[in-house]
Amino acid sequence: MSVRYDWGMRVRATVDLFNDGSHPGHEPQALLVKAGDPGEIVQIGEHVETDTPIYIVEFAQNLVVGCLQDEIEPV
C-alpha cells in the first residue's frame, strides 16, 4: 500500500462526499462534506482486497469520514 498523506495532516475534500450507508445517523446519499471543507487525517486504513489506502478524516462537528486519496488534498 502506497500512502500519499500522513496522520495528523490537515486536508480538504476535493469532491462532495455523500453517505454511502456507513453513517446511520444520516439519510442515505445525504451530503456529509462539501468540496473544500477542511479536516484532519486521524487514521489510515487499507482496503485489503485492492491494496488501497483509506484515510479516516475528521471534519467539522466530529464527523469522521473514510476518504480515498483522490477525494482529499493537503491544505
Q: Write down the CATH class.
A: Mainly Beta
Number of domains: 1
Number of DSSP-assigned strands: 7
Q: CATH topology, which one?
A: SH3 type barrels
Radius of gyration using CA atoms only: 12 Å
Structural class: mainly beta
Overall mean pLDDT score?
Answer: 95
Uncertain stretches: none
CATH architecture: Roll
Tell me the distance between the termini.
23 Å
- The H/E string reads EEEEEEE
Distinct helical segment count: 0
Short description:
One of its GO terms (biological process) is nitrogen fixation. The chain has a single domain, classed as Roll (SH3 type barrels), CATH 2.30.30. With 75 residues, it is mainly beta.
Outline the structure in words.
- The chain is mainly β and 75 residues long.
- The chain has a single domain (10-74), classed as SH3 type barrels (Roll).
- It is built from no helices and seven strands.
- The chain has strands at residues 10-13, 17-18, 31-33, 38-47, 52-59, 63-67, 72-74.
- β5 and β6 form a beta hairpin.
- The chain is globular and about 30 Å long.
Summarize this structure as a short list of keywords or feature phrases.
single chain, 75 residues, mainly beta, SH3 type barrels, 5-stranded antiparallel sheet, two-stranded antiparallel sheet, 0% helix, globular
